[in-house]
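User: You have something folded?
Assistant:
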Amino acid sequence: MANLFEQNRNYVLGDPELELLGDRTKLAQWRHKGMGPAFYRLGRKIIYRGADLNAWAEANRVDPGAEGRA
């Protein structure tokens, strides 16, 4: 799997790389609904680990060619 995010980096809201997933509003909706990638809440600060972002992206990967294969 190719990593979309740096494994050992922490990402905070406002980092342009997070826009691959969606804007701040979309990420806030996912957190509220218990969806999306794992995150840390430190006071009012939201932190995403690169390893968690990559794991979430891989878990949500769709391979259209694999649908019809058995």
